[in-house]
Amino acid sequence: MSDINKIIDPANLVYAKPELINDTPMHYCPGCSHGVAHKLIAEVIDEMGLKAETIAVAPVGCAVFAYNYMDVDWQEAAHGRAPAVATAIKRLNPEKLVFTYQGDGDLAAIGTGETIHAANRGENIAIIFINNGIYGMTGGQMSPTTLENMKTSTTPNGRNISANGYPLKILDLLAILPGVCLATRQSVHTAGAVKKAKKMIRQAFENSMANKGTSIVEIVSTCNAGWKMTPDGANKWMVENMFPEYPMGDLKNE
Question: Pairing with 98, which of 183, 218, 222, 228 sits 20 to 30 Å away (CA)?
Answer without folding.
Answer: 222
